[in-house]
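I'm stuck. Protein, please.
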Amino acid sequence: MFSKIPQKYVDSLTLRDLEDLIEYKKRNGARTDLVRDRDRLRLELKRVDDTIERIERNEIKNADQAASSEDGRASSFLIGKKKKNLKDYIAQVMADADEPLSPADIQRRLPEVGYSSNSTNPRSFYNTVFQALQRYEIFQKEHKKYRLSDDAFRGDKPVVEILPKKKTRLKDYIIQVLTESDGPLKVSEIASRSVISGYKTDLAMDELNQRVSATLKKYLNKDFDWDSQRYRLAARN
């Protein structure tokens, strides 16, 4: 234990010093053993995780292949998708139900199509499901329930991609206003005409003017041109 310590130093140590040194060596040795065991266990755990992941991938692949051969799942939203998102599972729940469902019904049925949530808060997960129902065009609301839209399938097959709803931005209204105008317009004119065209905002007119001005400047020379305090659509080649 003391082979690496100079003999002169060892001879000068008191009994208490020697006892402390022995105790330190014991603790340090134990720590080294624990670190080595920890690293070994981490490596073993990684091997186990890799094995589980490989098994799960095979199970999903086999389940998809089995589903494709079943009449009731011939039009699955999940088959062939490398990355399955919550919206795909929601769509599958609706396809299997063949009737409008409430968000709570959809939440309860998600495990039946293979979806497992990481959320430990049911209410939080309900909100996630509800937000997905609001976000995508494919989910059509009927009273307080939801069903797949008529555009969910192309023939016998589901759509390739579930797209979010189109959001009409202020920029879109500005383009519409300038397209319908006979000439360039001031910022205040664009703002008022955007509201008349249906742009919804809680901003006061002064604030809306500022937002319109910022939008015009952001897309200047790309979508809009400026001429003596008036704006028009940029020329397209």
